[in-house]
Amino acid sequence: MNEYTFTRRRVLQAGLAAGAVAALPGAVRPPAAVADSRPVAAVRFARPPAAVRPRFRWWWPDGQVDPAEIRREIDQIADAGFGGAEIVAVHHSIRDKSVLDPGKYGWGTPAWNAGVEAALDQARKRGITVDLTIGPAWPAAVPTITPDSPEAVKELAYGRADVAGGTTYSGPVPAARAAAEHGVTRQKLLWVHAVRIDPALSTRNETGLALDSWQDLTSLVKDGRIEWSAPEGGTWVLLSYWERGSGQQPESGPHSSPESYVVDHFSRAGTQAVIDFWEERLLTPRIRRLLEQAGGALFEDSIELETQALNWTPGLDAEFARRRGYALHRYLPVIVRYDENPVFTYQAELTRHARHDYWLTVSDLFSEYHFEVLTDWAHSLGLRFRSQPYGLETDAIEHAAIVDIPEGESLGFRNLDDYRALAGGRDLAGRKVLSSEAGAYQGAAYSVTWDRFLSTMGGAYAAGLNQTVLHGFSYATAPGVNWPGFAGFTPYNGGIGFSESWGPRHPTWRHVEDVAGYLARVHQVTQAGVNKIDVAVYRQKGRTKTGLGAGWFTSDGVPLGWTHQLVSDPVLQLPLAEVSGGRLAPEGPAYKVLVVEHDIYGGNERTLPVATAERLLRWTRQGLPLIFIGDWSAATVPGIAKEGENERLRAILAELFRQPKVRNVPDRPSTPQALEALGLRPDVRYAQRSTLLYAHRVEDEVDFYYFVNGKHAETVRPPVAAIDHKVTLTRSDRDAVPYRLDAWTGEIERIAVYEEDGDTVTVRVALQPSESTIVVLARPGHFGDGARRRVHAVSTQADEVRYSDRGLAVRAAQAGTYALTLSDGRTAQAAIAAVPAPVDLTSWTLTVEDWRPGASPTETVTQTHEVTLDALKPWTEIPGLEDVSGVGVYRTTVDLDVGWTRSHGAYLRLGEVTDTCRVKVNGRALPPVDQLNPVLDIGDHLRPGANTIEVEVATTLLNRLRVSDPAVYGVATRQRYGLIGPVRLVPYGETTVRV
C-alpha cells in the first residue's frame, strides 16, 4: 500500500487560477491575449521567468574573445533555459600565459570591453542578464596599483631575536621572518616589543609568553638599529613588526598589463581603487547603458587573502583602540602569524579573547569599508552586489546581511550548516536570495553527471539556497587548446581539472533544458514569500565554510523535522530582530526558540556580550523561549573584559535563567527535553527519524514546502536510502488543502489523500535518494481547481488515489476491491479488474551517435553505430562502444493484448540511466524525466497492439576523451553509459469512486 503517495500522473491540464500568481515570485499578469490558454499561475510555474532561472559562471580567456562568438554563446545559454551568466577571466588550464597577450587582450582592455558589450547587448535581446566580477579572477585586484601602493593589500610581518636575561642586544632591528613577496620593495617598521618567554604557558605549536613582562621598545630604535638590555632571568624575545604590501595577485594571472595586484579589503582606499578603475576604464558609456538594460549583479568571489604573515591594514591599531576600548600593542605578540598559524601565546583564555577582538575589528572594517561601499556603488549602477563573504576569521553571517545576494559554494562548503549560516544573515536582513557556486568537483572535468549535480544541490535548497550559478560554461576556444575546446579549469597542473565546461560540447546539452526548467521551478518556489525556520542557533563568531554544525539540531534534530539557522550578534540588532507572539523576527524567519551554547571556535568557552545578554533577557520577558546549553556560571564576555563586565554578565544570566521561558540544559542530548518543556514543535514532523530535508516558505498564508530525501553532507555514509512515510505539515490557513507541484514537468495536482487536524495536514512522502517534491498548502481554488472543499480520502488500501473530473481515481497494480475512508466519514469500495502482469523490457535496438574530435578544437564529428541487444548493459560492455561518448537511442516494441482498455495504464520504470534521458511512446514525446527517479506514467499513450517505446540517452565526454587526449584523461576509469535498467513496464488498473 502507498497511501498518500505523490504520483507523476498529469492531472490538471488547465484551469489553474490566477490566484496563484501572488504566491509565485516574479509573477506578472500577461496581456489579455496569450498563446497559452492556461491561467497565469500554471504558465508561470511551467515557464519560470529569467530572474529565477539558473545561471552559469562563464569563463573567458581574458579578452581574447570574438564578439560574434560571445553572442552565439549568450544564445546557447538562453536557448537552454538559463537566466544569465557571470563573466570572469579564468584560464588555469593554460600553462603558457604568454599566448594570451594581456597587453592586447587583458582584463580592462578595449578587447575585453568589446566582449562585455557584445554579451550585454545580446543578453538584452534575449531577456536574460549578465553579471560581472569586480576584478580579474579573485580576490579583487586592479592593474593601477603596485604592492607598495597605499591601496594594495597589506600584511604585518614579525621579526624575532632571542635575548638571554641579563645580556644586551645591540644590532639591526630583527628582520621579518617571512620574506617579502615579489614586487614588494618597501616596508615600514611600526613597533618593537620585548616579552619574556614563559615555558609553563607553551604549547606544542606556540611559545608561551608572560604578559606582565611586555615592554614597548620602539623609542629605542635609531637608524634601523636597537640596543637593549634584557632584565635578569629567563629568555626574552625581541619582536619587530613590519607593515608592507603582501604582493598578492589574482588567481592564475597575469590578466592585465601591467599586472594586477589585490587591493586592501579593509580600507576605504583599497575599495575605492576598484571603483575608480571601473569608472575610468570599464564603464564605457555604452556598457553603462547596457548594464541598466541587461546587468544583473557585480560579483566578488570568496575572500582568499593569502599571506605568510598577518592580515593587516594601515591604522588598524587606531581602529582597534576606538572600537574595542583598549590598545592592541600588548597583545600583538599573540596575534601575529607565520604561515597562517599563530606563534606565541599568553595564558590560553586571555589569548583567545585578544584574538577574538582582533578579528572582530577586522570584520568590522571589512563590513564598513568593503561590503557596504561596494553594495552602495553597485546600486548606483542599477545593479545588485553578489558576494561570497567568507574566507577569513570574520563574521560571514553579518556580511551576508549587508550584500544583496550572499553566495556559498558546493565544493568548499562541508555541510548544510555552512549554508544555514549565510541564510541566517540573509533572512534577518529581510533579503530573499542565497546563491551558490554550484557543482564544482575536483578532478571531475567532463565526467560530472547531472544526477551527481542534483544530488549535491538537493539538500542545499532545504538549507536556504535558492539561486544556482553553475560552475561553469567555458568560452569556445583559446590558443593551444585541444578538443572539445577551451576549458577554464582543465587540464589542471597537467591532469584532469575542476568540474565541467557545460555547453553544446556536451552530449547532454540536448537535454539540459529539462534540468534548467527543474532548477528554475525549485528556485521559484524557494524564493516565494518568507523563509520560516524553527530554531536560531547563536554563534559567538559568525564564520562559515568550516563544516562545524549546530550540535543537536544538526545531528539529531533535523531527522525529526527541526529546521535551524545560525545567527551572530550583529544580525540580532537588525530591525527585523524583534519579538512578538513568542517569535523572534515574526515578519521574517519567525524563530520559535533561540539556542545559545559554547563558542565552538573559541575553546568551547561560554561567552556572551553584556549587551546581548541584556537583549535576550528583554526578549524572553516578551515571550521568546531560550535554551542555554552547558554550565554558564563562569561565563565571560568574548573579548578582553573591561572592569566589572564579567560580573555584570553573570548577574544578567542569573536573572535570565529565572525566567519561565528559559531552560538551561547540561548538554546537547538534553535539548529535546527542553523543547518539550517549552511546548515547542517543528513546523514539520515525521513519523520516524528520516533523511527527509525541507524548506518552508510562507506568502499570504500560502505555505510552500520543498522536500528532498538528502543528507547533511555529501560525504555522509552510508548512502541515503529510499523513504516512504507520513509527514505532518503546519498550515498558516486552516482552510488550506495540499497540492503537489512537479518541478520537472511544471504540472500542479491537488492531493487526494491526506489527514487534517487543526493547523496541520498529514500527507505521505515517498522519495528515492536525492529525489525532491514540492507541496503547497493553499485554499481550495487557489490553483484553479474549484473553490469548494472536495471530499478527499483519509486512508486507502489502494496504491494511489487522485482527483479526477468524476471523483476519486483509484489505482492498483493488482486486481481486487480496495477500501477508502473518506473525509466525510464514509467508507467507499473501489473494484479493480484484472491487471496485466509487469513486463521486463530486455530486447532493444540501439543507435549510437558517437562524438569524436574534428579538424579543429571546437569541431565535433559523429559516427553512427547500430547494435541489437538481448539484454541491457553499459556501453563499456558492448564491443565497439567501450570508448564511445555521445547520444544513444534505444527502441523496443511492447505488444498489449486486445483486453487493454482505458481502465488500464502503466508506469515505465527505466532503472539505471547514465546520464540524461528523454522518452517517446508511439512517437509522442513525454514530459521531462526526473533524472534521479526515472519513472514515467505512460498510461495515456498506450494502446492495444504494438507500442513503440524510445529512450534517448546522452552521456558525458569522459570515455571519448580517455582515448582522444590520453595524456590528460587516460588515467580515468571508464564510466558506465547508457540505459542500463532494468527497464520494466508496470501496468495498473484504475477505477473511479464518485464522491
Descriptive account of the structure:
The protein is of the alpha+beta class and 995 residues long. It is 21% helix and 29% strand. It contains 18 helices and 55 strands. The strands form 14 sheets. An 8-stranded parallel barrel has the order 1-2-3-13-18-19-20-21, surrounded by 6 helices. Strand 23, helix 13 and strand 24 form a beta-alpha-beta unit. Helix 5 packs parallel to helix 8, helix 9 (396-402) packs across helix 10 and helix 14 packs parallel to helix 15 (645-657). The chain is globular and about 105 Å long. The model is unreliable at 1-35 (pLDDT under 50).
Rg calculated over all Cα atoms: 31 Å
Determine the strand fraction and express it as a percent band. Answer: 25-35%
N-C termini distance: 22 Å
Identify low-pLDDT runs. 1-35
Total beta strand runs: 55
Instruction: Give the overall form.
Output: globular
The proportion of residues forming helix, as a percent range, comes to 10-25%
Major sheet, described briefly?
8 strands, parallel, barrel
Sheet with most strands: strand arrangement? 1-2-3-13-18-19-20-21
Helices, by number, come to: 18
Mean pLDDT: 94
Structural class: alpha+beta
Write a brief caption for the model.
21% of the residues lie in helices and 29% in strands.
Annotate the secondary structure layout:
Layout (H helix, E strand, L loop, with lengths): L39 H7 L8 E6 L6 H13 L4 E6 L12 H4 L4 H17 L2 E5 L7 E2 L11 E11 L3 E5 L14 E10 L10 E2 L6 E2 L8 E5 L5 E11 L15 E2 L5 H15 L2 H10 E6 L9 E3 L3 H9 L12 E2 L2 E2 L1 E2 L2 H33 L3 E4 L8 H7 L2 E5 L6 H13 L6 E4 L11 H13 L4 E8 L37 H15 L3 E2 L3 E5 L12 H6 L6 E5 L10 E2 L2 E2 L8 E4 L13 H12 L4 E4 L15 H13 L4 E4 L5 H7 L6 E3 L5 E8 L2 E8 L13 E8 L6 E5 L6 E3 L4 E3 L2 E8 L4 E7 L14 E4 L3 E5 L2 E6 L3 E7 L4 E6 L6 E2 L3 E10 L6 E10 L16 E11 L7 E6 L2 E3 L1 E6 L2 E2 L9 E3 L7 E10 L3 H7 L1 H4 L8 E4 L2 E10 L2
Parallel strand pairs: 1-2, 1-21, 2-3, 3-13, 8-17, 13-18, 18-19, 19-20, 20-21, 23-24, 23-27, 27-28, 28-29
Antiparallel strand pairs: 4-12, 5-11, 5-14, 6-10, 7-9, 7-11, 15-16, 22-31, 25-26, 30-33, 31-32, 32-38, 33-37, 34-35, 34-38, 36-37, 39-42, 40-41, 41-55, 42-43, 44-55, 45-46, 45-47, 47-53, 48-52, 48-55, 49-54, 50-51, 50-53
Helix pairs in contact: 2-4, 4-6, 5-8, 7-8, 9-10, 14-15
